[in-house]
């Protein structure tokens, strides 16, 4: 009986020590300074109640860098260079059904978004490679479509890189804003 007690006590002690060691060794990362966000079209798609026929057509997962007093376009994000369209991992767009961008039909699926900002126009790029960090390994050969869109100057700067959608006849405009810049990408479906 004494031997059984000793064995049970030893096992419980070892198990408790093993759990403490595992828990103590885990180091969680600090919060990211460019938080991840998701935007859907229709905007209310993820909040639709059971039985509501609203289904997403587009979902974009992106990180939201901050202005932090910096000049963004033309300085931090240089004109004429491919930009990751946010921060951290490349921004990814999922089309739940076939869409058309710049007259090009794009199959349902997941793609990455990039941009080439310039003073008066941006080139928005839909690319077939996903799960990449930034634009460091961007491959132009994987572009699905490139569309030039005009720049609108905002009266009041936007602190966080922001995406939203505005409904249009036959589709939606992806509205992009950061610092004093706004551009819109028409998407038809």
Content-based structural category: mainly beta
**Number of helical segments with 4 or more residues:** 1
Helix content: 10-25%
CA-CA gap between termini? 76 Å
Average per-residue pLDDT, rounded, comes to 88
Stretches where pLDDT falls below 50 for ≥5 residues?
none
Percentage of residues in strands = 35-45%
Number of strands: 10
Rg, rounded, reads 23 Å
Order of helices and strands: HEEEEEEEEEE
Strand order of the largest sheet: 1-2-3-6-7-8
The largest pleated sheet is described as: 6 strands, antiparallel
Which term fits the overall shape? Answer: globular
Characterization of the model:
This protein has 189 residues and is mainly beta. The protein has a domain at 36-150. Helices cover 13% and strands 43% of the residues. The protein has 1 helix and 10 strands, in the order αββββββββββ. The protein has one helix at residues 2-25; strands at 36-41, 58-63, 91-95, 99-101, 104-106, 109-117, 121-127, 143-150, 152-168, 171-188. It has a 6-stranded antiparallel β-sheet with strand order 1-2-3-6-7-8, with no helix packed on it. A two-stranded antiparallel sheet has the order 4-5. A two-stranded antiparallel sheet has the order 9-10. A hairpin with a 2-residue loop joins β4 (99-101) and β5. The radius of gyration is 23 Å and the shape is globular. The mean pLDDT is 88. This is DUF2911 domain-containing protein. It holds the Pfam family DUF2911.
